[in-house]
From TrEMBL:
Natural source organism: Campylobacter geochelonis
Transcriptional regulator DauR-like HTH domain residues: 161-218
Domain (YheO-like) ranges: 8-116
The protein, known as: Helix-turn-helix containing protein
Domain of life: Bacteria
Length: 223
């Protein structure tokens, strides 16, 4: 997206953050040829992320699988913050025809409402509360389809840790070229290199130059 569009959407993020309130995190992801990153964020106390933080692993999967070509948005999927708080996420794809330019995401922390309901039931000493059958059916459906699909990562390191064994990289062991190729291929398959600054971070973790990372990536492209 161009500078003017990004500025306007940044104002929209601020507007939504104030209107929806503190239990809603609103995030604008800018997706460029140089990489993707958070361009604007409001109520970031929910995930502790900030401007220039990377996309999540889930968002990278959406880009890699080109979900935006068949969908304009996704709603009410389960996400979790690094601190273990569950939230409900929704994503709107910002597109120019079929080309993705960004994503507007809203993460709702509804735990406070759940706690209020529990406290009200306790005040009334209602221990035998039976939900209507249709609500029970809905809850069963949600439980079956409530797998966490997104972890709200605060850094590229968090995302890498979910894909590869970071402890191995921090052990000081010199990795064989075959192992480095395996790691870079795995990161490529997960779309990690769509993140702004990912090549530099991977080069640092693998104790190699950026040029070397690009050489390994060329091998992946050819395979």
């Amino acid at each position: 997206m161009d500078k003017k569009q990004k500025e306007q959407l940044g104002k929209l993020v601020k507007f939504l953050g104030e209107v929806l309130g503190q239990s809603y995190e609103v995030v604008l992801h800018d997706i460029t040829e140089k990489g993707a990153y958070i361009a604007a964020i409001e109520n970031n106390h929910i995930s502790n992320r900030s401007v220039n933080s990377p996309l999540t692993g889930f968002a990278l999967e959406l880009l890699k699988n080109e979900e935006y070509k068949d969908n304009d948005y996704l709603i009410n999927y389960k996400a979790m913050t690094k601190r273990g708080n569950s939230v409900r996420g929704s994503t709107f794809f910002i597109k120019d025809d079929d080309k993705i330019q960004g994503m507007l995401c809203i993460n709702h922390n509804d735990n406070a409402y759940k706690n209020v309901v529990e406290e009200i039931l306790k005040l009334g000493n209602i221990t035998d509360y039976n939900k209507p059958q249709n609500e029970q059916i809905q809850e069963e459906y949600l439980n079956k389809n409530s797998e966490i699909v997104e972890y709200l990562s605060e850094s590229i390191e968090d995302i890498l840790a979910g894909i590869i064994d970071i402890s191995l990289l921090n052990s000081g062991v010199n990795l064989r070229p075959e192992k480095k190729q395996e790691i870079i291929s795995a990161l490529y398959d997960k779309g990690v290199f769509n993140i702004k600054g990912a090549v530099l971070k991977v080069a640092d973790l693998l104790h190699m130059s950026e040029q070397s990372v690009y050489r390994y990536l060329k091998k992946v492209d050819k395979s």
